[in-house]
Design goal:
Elements (H helix, E strand, L loop, with lengths): L7 E6 L7 H11 L3 E6 L9 H8 L3 E2 L11 H8 L2 E7 L1 H9 L5 H8 L3 E6 L3 H5 L1 H12 L3 E2 L3 E4 L5 E5 L3 H14 L7 E6 L4 E2 L5 E2 L6 H12 L3 E6 L12 E5 L3 H11 L5 E4 L6 E3 L32 E3 L3 H10 L8 E8 L3 H12 L3 E6 L11 E10 L2 E12 H12 L4
Parallel strand pairs: 1-2, 1-4, 2-3, 4-5, 5-6, 9-12, 9-14, 12-13, 14-17, 17-18
Antiparallel strand pairs: 7-8, 10-11, 15-16, 18-19, 19-20
Helix pairs in contact: 1-2, 1-8, 3-5, 4-7, 9-13
The structure holds ligand PMT.
The site of ligand PMT has 27 residues, from helix 9, helix 11, strand 17 and helix 12.
């Protein structure tokens, strides 16, 4: 391992029987050349003593907020020094505290101050894990970009069997290694991402739009940030939380024309351009500055309603610019960086592979990520996705990778690794 691959890994251990597995993990990480620091909650020390981790890591083990007079703000030092933090086992209680930003001991205070990549490996009784409160907390953490590892399903310490077992040390080690590895993938690169829907207003209150939540694009933005990129996010109207990060610039847009203008302006500086936005292909040809009124049905004086057929207003539409195709054309014309990579998405309901390959060629993208938007558990609005990545090969446009259904975070990471391979 060269020096740039050696990282400081902060292990946060909370009170669960699975704490014993972290001994093996700490040993593996140290052997792999990493500097390992350990923070334990008081409950964790009931399962494994700090002396064990001190011996395994060759570093002091922190358990109290104020236990080191020489370092009165130990949590900040620990948080700043670490490249990656893994909390394992993570109890339901600690997961709830992390979700709500509660910082009442050294571990949760350090986690709150930590700005890097946070991984957690839940471990608890099955009913506690399946409880809606825990599920909602885990979902919130994942949406914020925390990586969840497990839990596994099997026999639990309490005698129950089901989901809630912490994954094994080997799996934790692989996950940490993978994260450390990918954290420099896009170092120094500029990534431009469009996300969310566009809105095409007919009048001040009505618009044409679609169901895009922005989750896929935001997952890509978070993963690009984690991989060291500077990210410019051009975002349609969404309600999803957007990361606040000094390396992220956010441009809010409403219509396809606004998005087109922002993307075209930012593209020449980008190394990687990813168009996940669900752009409206058409907009109303005319905009009414006052609310369009519904025609009033004439009333006969007696109260009798005359049987007249009212003609519903017809909205005529004008085609919007195709942003992705425009960027493809800019590349052909030499208006982008010569090595800029353009990635489009394709939202398909049928004939996915043929349509996606055709879109890649027609729009001049280097890669095209196709997803099935007829499914309810992937694609639009959902937390998960399953995609097929197309690219140019020696035999023409072909499938490069099929990514099975998983969190949009993991899909995003795999997309970045596919379109921007290391070295
Ligand atoms: O936002 P989420 O709820 O997480 O959902 C994610 C998603 C389903 C929106 C996303 O995964 C996705 O599929 N995005 C592409 C949506 C789309 O508009 O697909 P399309 O097949 O109509 O367009 C193909 C490509 O051309 C896309 O990259 C699109 O951004 C681009 N396009 C389309 C029309 C247009 N006028 N300009 C464009 O740039």
């Amino acid at each position: 391992m060269n020096q740039s691959q050696q990282k400081t890994i902060l292990l946060g251990i909370t009170g669960g029987i699975a704490a014993y597995k972290i001994c093996d993990l700490a040993r593996q990480l140290v052997r792999a050349g990493h500097k390992v620091k350990v923070v334990m909650t008081a409950a964790a020390t009931q399962f494994v003593g700090p002396a064990t981790f001190r011996a395994l890591t060759n570093n002091p083990v922190a358990t109290e907020l104020f236990d080191d007079p020489a370092a009165p703000i130990n949590h900040i030092n620990l948080a700043e020094e670490a490249d990656l933090m893994l909390i394992a086992p993570a109890t339901a209680n600690v997961i709830a505290k992390l979700t709500h930003g509660r910082a009442d001991d050294l571990l949760t205070t350090t986690a709150l101050a930590f700005q890097g990549r946070l991984l957690i490996a839940p471990a608890m009784n099955t009913q506690m894990y399946l409880d809606p409160a825990t599920q909602a907390n885990l979902k919130t953490l994942e949406q914020r970009g925390v990586t969840l590892i497990g839990p596994a399903t099997g026999q639990l310490a309490c005698g129950d069997s089901g989901p809630g077992r912490m994954v094994e040390a080997d799996e934790l080690f692989d996950k940490v290694a993978e994260c450390v590895h990918s954290s420099t993938l896009l170092a120094g690169k500029k990534v431009l991402i469009s996300a969310g829907p566009t809105r095409e207003y007919l009048d001040p209150v009505r618009y044409l739009s679609n169901r895009s939540s922005g989750k896929m694009g935001l997952a890509l933005a978070r993963e690009a940030l984690r991989a060291g990129a500077g990210v410019q996010l051009v975002l349609g109207p969404v309600t999803e939380p957007v990361p606040v990060d000094p390396h992220l610039t956010r441009r809010d847009v409403v219509s396809a024309e606004d998005m087109h203008a922002c993307m075209t302006e930012a593209a020449p500086k980008a190394d990687l351009i990813i168009c996940t936005a669900a752009v409206s292909d058409y907009r109303p040809s005319e905009y009414s500055s006052s609310k369009i009124k519904k025609p009033v049905q004439p009333q006969a004086q007696s109260g009798f309603v005359a049987p007249v057929t009212l003609i519903a207003p017809i909205v005529s539409l004008t085609e919007n610019p195709d942003i992705l195709a425009g960027l493809g054309q800019m590349k052909v014309e030499g208006k982008l960086r010569s090595d800029a990579v353009i990635v489009g998405f394709a939202a398909e309901t049928d004939n996915m592979e043929a349509s996606a390959a055709e879109k890649l060629e027609r729009k001049g993208a280097d890669f095209l990520v196709a997803n099935d938007v007829s499914a309810t558990d992937i694609g639009f609005e959902s937390e998960q996705n399953a995609v097929t990545i197309f690219g140019k090969t020696a035999v023409g446009v072909d499938v490069l990778r099929r990514l099975e259904k998983s969190s949009k975070t993991l899909i995003a990471r795999q997309i970045l690794e596919t379109v921007y391979p290391r070295g």
